[in-house]
Design a protein that fits this description.
4 helices; alpha/beta; globular; 10-stranded mixed β-sheet
Amino acid sequence: MMKFKPNQTRTYDGEGFKRRAACLCFKNEKEDEVLLVSSSRHPDQWIVPGGGMEPEEEPCGAAVREVYEEAGVKGKLGRLLGVFEHNQDRKHRTYVYILIVTETLEDWEDSVNIGRKRKWFKIEEAIRVLQSHKPVHAEYLRRLTATRNPTCSPACSPTNGNTPVSQMTDNNAPHYVCSTQGSDLVNR
């Protein structure tokens, strides 16, 4: 079943990139198990929960809203892992945050409306699962393993009952450009 998005306003930045936000959701601070959700377009494939930012929405707020809608979880928002560009067919610029899950809802918006599923994966297994159909998502996890850093920046103010612990601005966030293969990155 395809996700219907009524009245959705796609937002773009000054360079024509669709503004997106996502979270790598972890079971605990060890960051060794990540939560993936089934794709709305291809229910047999797993993806990192995330989506488009709404007008006037901050990236950290959008990331928290998206994981609440798609994965049915709340948690402690951590650091901004980076800003990832995808230039293949669609120009996307995605802000990817770390979230430590503190609450898992039994039923959530996308599970009820479109039958979306969620599942915990070890990091290496998640990279393998994502690599074939969502190489940019696999790259988020590769970047995480290459940049493990437990320190955080000043607080963010997301919604949905999540506890904020950090935020980075666009200016000091690592910025990555993903190639068409999804595994080559250029750090800008």
